[in-house]
Amino acid sequence: MPEFNLRPDTIMYNIVSRSFSVGDDMVMADTLMKEMGLISLYPDIITNVLMIKGFCNADRLEDACGLFKAMRRHGCVTNSVAYSALLDGICRSGSMEEALELLVDMEKRGWDSRPNVVIYTSVTQSFCEKDMMVEALGILDRMNACGCAPNGVTVSTLIKGLCG
Length: 164
Prior knowledge:
Helix content: over 70%
Order of helices and strands: HHHHHHHHH
Mean pLDDT: 90
Radius of gyration: 18 Å
Distance between the termini: 58 Å
Number of helices: 9
Largest sheet: none
Shape: elongated
Strand content: under 5%
Number of strands: 0
């Protein structure tokens, strides 16, 4: 767009990167993210969450975890949305020990990163699907310890897990 004296911004990169990450072309999405740095633009939380979700959906969990760690190193806030995206990918991959470690990390962080009932329920459901009922019930204890009350979906998830 040089002929119009226009230059892409982070929002434009996010829109284009999203189309590639949703379309399972993480190579191109990753290339665009790296290209941003070449023109003195920096990925924001939206860029990073899009990329984490894309990497998880493409079974590139290591890349998603690496990006999550890089976010912290570069001062980008790892809020509950970023944690949730990574946690979802970890649970879907079946790495339940790693999921529990990430949940513990969330609980130690400040207000922007604390797990909510949706995140706890999602992790509980993943444990139930893996027939890890003791661990699923442990999530309920963690919720109570953090002052997060279970909702009907949480209870229903546990009942289905116990009965199944």
